[in-house]
Amino acid sequence: MKKSNFSYLLLFAASLMIAATFTSCGPKDEDMKAGLTKKIQAMPDMQGVMVDVKDAVVTISGEVKDDATKALCETTVKGAKGVKSVVNNCTVTPPPVEAPVVIAADDPLTKGVNDAISSYSGVKADVKDGVVTLTGDIKKAELKTLMMSLNTLKPKKIDNQLVIK
Amino acid sequence: MALLDKYKSLTDAATASGVTRLQVREQDNVLYIDGNAPSGAVKDQLWNIYNTIDPDFRAGDLVMNINVTGIIEGTKLKVVTASSNLNIRKGPGTDQPIVGKAAHNEIVTLVSRASDQWWLVRTDAGEEGYSYAQYLTPA
User: Fold this and answer.
1) What is the ipTM metric for this complex?
2) Are residues A97 and B51, on separate chains, in Cβ contact within 8 Å?
3) Which of A145, A157, A162 is the best residue to mutate to test the B interface, defined by the most B CB atoms within 10 Å of its own CB?
4) What is the mean pLDDT of each run of 10 residues along chain A (165 residues)?
């Protein structure tokens, strides 16, 4: 009975030592990389961030939308177990345009264009698929005012072929 | 992205001069700049920069929709036609009958803004109707 108790004790001590050995070394680089990649890519706005680990030094890279997100990337990996230090190589790229540009339909656009040019006797306009084509002639001093009006009508583009008098 | 570079001084000026709700978007080789200017002078300044970058607005690669904010009901407006009278119409559109006229440089009162193009105004003589907003500026 005594002998058997002793051997259990030995086994227990051995397992403690093994556990201690593994804990002090920390997770291996590859495991850390996998874990941190999963963790960071689950965060909002960090799907494009890459993680690399070498000797417990974590390098993060990729594009993020702003400085706050870049800082948060670093905080996210810094707190993880076994991380010695973090090299933050993330670059800040502002997000591309939010909503697509709304172009007016030809009917209201044509009406608006006709209103705008009505007081310029020499100006003619044609509207097709949102593109306003201006022909005829205009005084230089009046061109800016006319363009200001036309630009509020949400055209796709304005093709100015007017001859300046 | 080339258009953003071409008109960079314009968008920078818009930001610096306090244009709100500023949106700069590029789509199908046209740059669209939208925003609200704090005054008519700021809007005019931006248009002058545009005219410097693209003399006489020939390139057809920019649509700049800048409106002036802060023009509320009761604002006194000056008629800024080239020289002629400003038509006051029954409804918002040049197909609407003319119900009155305001002289060049006359001061009228804003009743409401029907759209960005057509504003309902009242003259000192009591005539009320729609006029083209481009010819009205805060007095």
Assistant:
1) 0.85
2) no
3) A157
4) 67 64 64 92 86 94 90 91 93 76 95 92 96 96 93 96 95
